[in-house]
Every structure is written in structure tokens, then in C-alpha cells.
């Protein structure tokens, strides 16, 4: 059971985890032991509330397929148990991040003083550049 928030949690049957061989170097052990975890979570067929599903499907994340399946590959750690915990934590982070409401941006105008400072700096820069020209007798 994966706890997302106080009211939302996922059952074990909703999350598919398979052990695979990790990529990269690691000596003899990497070729024999399946320590990496391949996690798959189907958003559409889960018991998540409808608002969670809508927001997750609206996210443009490369880990979420067009069919609504989240795929996470965890191979950072040497043991299978640590990789399982890492994959579950990353899944929970994705779901929590989908529920964060972005603060609405309000357009603001620059103040009169900031406009004057900008124009003064612009004039100073123009004066400096004009002094770089050819010296005439």
C-alpha cells in the first residue's frame, strides 16, 4: 500500500513491478543479478480520484505514455529492495506534483522610477559608446 496523502493511497495490485538487469558497468554482479526495477502504473484503471487522474493525464511528462501508463525504471542502488523503494517514492512524487496548483501570475507594469533608471542607464551607455569613436582634430 503506497500512501500519497492523508486520504489517497494506492493498493499493491495497481502497481506492476518487475525485476530487470541494471545497465552500465558493475563487474560480474551486474550480469547475473536482476537488481533494477521496472515499475508500471496505469492511471486510467487505478483507484485514484477523478481529479488526480485528470491532472496526471494532462501533464506532459516523458514517463507517462499516451495510454496513461506511468513507467519508471529504478536502477540507482545495488539492491533490489532499495530500487523498489526508490521507484515507489518517485511514483508518489509524480502524483503529488500533479496536485500542486500553480499560483496565477498577475501582469504588472514597471514603476515610473524604474523606467527613469532604465532610460538613465541607457543614456550613460550610449554616451560611453559615443566616446569610442574616431578622434577628430
Fold and architecture overview:
Helices cover 38% and strands 17% of the residues. It is α+β, with helices and mostly antiparallel strands. It has one domain: Double Stranded RNA Binding Domain. The model has no long low-confidence stretch (mean pLDDT 85).
Widest beta sheet: strand line-up: 3-4-5
Secondary-structure class: alpha+beta
Proportion of beta-strand residues: 15-25%
Instruction: Give the overall form.
Output: elongated
Q: How many domains in all?
A: 1
The CATH architecture category equals 2-Layer Sandwich
> Radius of gyration, rounded?
27 Å
Number of helices: 4
Catalogue the unreliable spans.
none
Number of strands: 5
- Counting copies of identical and different chains, the oligomeric state is single chain
Question: Secondary-structure element sequence?
Answer: EEEHEHEHH
Q: What distance separates the N and C termini? A: 86 Å
Which topology does CATH recognise? Double Stranded RNA Binding Domain
Mean pLDDT over the full residue set: 85
Which bin fits the share of residues in helices? 25-40%
CATH top-level class: Alpha Beta
Largest sheet: 3 strands, antiparallel
Amino acid at each position: 500500500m503506497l500512501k500519497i496523502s492523508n486520504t489517497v493511497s494506492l493498493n499493491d495490485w495497481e502497481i506492476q513491478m518487475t525485476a530487470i538487469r541494471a545497465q552500465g558497468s558493475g563487474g560480474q554482479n551486474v550480469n547475473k543479478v536482476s537488481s533494477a526495477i521496472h515499475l508500471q502504473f496505469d492511471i486510467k484503471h487505478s483507484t485514484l480520484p477523478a481529479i488526480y487522474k485528470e491532472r496526471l493525464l494532462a501533464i506532459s511528462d516523458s514517463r507517462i505514455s499516451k495510454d496513461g501508463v506511468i513507467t519508471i525504471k529504478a536502477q540507482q542502488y545495488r539492491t533490489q529492495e532499495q530500487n523498489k523503494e526508490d521507484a515507489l517514492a518517485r511514483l508518489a512524487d509524480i502524483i503529488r506534483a500533479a496536485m500542486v496548483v500553480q499560483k496565477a501570475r498577475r501582469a504588472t507594469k514597471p514603476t515610473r522610477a524604474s523606467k527613469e533608471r532604465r532610460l538613465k542607464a541607457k543614456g550613460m551607455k550610449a554616451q560611453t559608446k559615443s566616446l569610442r569613436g574616431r578622434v577628430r582634430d
